Amino acid sequence: MSTVLTNVSKQYEADKTVLSDVSAEIQTGEFFVIVGPSGCGKSTLLRMIAGLTEISDGRISIDDKVVNNLPPKDRNLTMVFQSYALFPFLSVWDNVAFGLKARKDKSQSEIDERVNNALRMVNLEELKERKPRELSGGQRQRVALARAVASDAKICLMDEPLSNLDAQLRIKMRQEIYSLQRKLGLTLIYVTHDQVEAMTMADHIMVLHDSKVQQIGTPAEIYKKPANEFVASFFGVPPINILPAVKEDDGRINVNDDFQVNIDQEVPTGEFKIGIRPTEMKLEKVEELDANASVTSVEFLGDEKIVYAKMSNNDKEISVIVESNADFKAYDTIQVSATDNILVFNADGVNITKNAEDVVNA
């Protein structure tokens, strides 16, 4: 039961385009994550798939059937909202059973079996008589998950379901959602602005920005072969270092007028940009006369440190990951260099790195 989006667009007004020409094929049983910054249209896209928001142009197909004009109840899918959307006056059990009862096509014994199985899967059997106000945030999210599991829908849509939870609970719930999805064979379409959620859970990721698809790929493809400068900058903690570079007439490549790099491909003479991950930069303490940067701050993360520095020319900020025992502190003068593992972007921000030609561009 694949879900196919073909040139899907949404305009609220003539001059207000929320989404433009979004196309994707989401395979049966796939964990598909839609990610992007706030306001990029990802929740709108999910609501269009659900049938809660009308599309302006294009086509949405589920299992080879165009569903543009089908109401949500006829699309054979279920949705988990950011706000949980629980009925405060109903018990946990009745919240999970509500949708099944409303459809009136299930016997009471079948409803009982589905609800009890769903509660067992999310470890809420002992809390089934409680009201939502008596539950923690994580438990309320489990109720919402159980309601989705109890449905016989094979497609589940999730709109930033973990954003209201604290960091430790988000990690636990990520694992539980992933495990449930695999166990049930659900097609799960998941919206988030959190790159860590996207990278750790997805089979494929769609990156949205400025109303358009920037790239669709596996987590490894998105990270190692970003389609453009935006995708490269969006994924990675700390973010990739984007620096101006120029190829001189003699072939040398100068970065920010501070150091030189080797790039194993032909690049046009003139100006372009390079991307260097914080793990691919090297630092060395030197005297001020030999320095091309100075340390601004250092973050200790246990098994490693993040060194933040300001380059000598143009005051460009960079971040570098070093070993935890590396001795760097604020105001140290340093020499910055880089490995040969470098991404190359043209003037339009498109990735032109060698072997990146199979990257899906917008």
From TrEMBL:
Domain (ABC transporter) spans 3-235
Keyword Coiled coil listed? The answer is no
Q: Which GO cellular component terms, listed alphabetically, does the Swiss-Prot or TrEMBL entry include?
A: ATP-binding cassette (ABC) transporter complex, substrate-binding subunit-containing
Signal peptide segment: none
Taken from the record, one Pfam family name reads ABC_tran
Q: Which GO terms describe its biological process?
A: carbohydrate transport
Which key words tag this protein in UniProt? Answer: ATP-binding, Cell membrane, Membrane, Nucleotide-binding, Translocase, Transport
Protein name, per record? ABC transporter ATP-binding protein
**Species of the source:** Companilactobacillus halodurans
The organism's lineage is: Bacteria, Bacillati, Bacillota, Bacilli, Lactobacillales
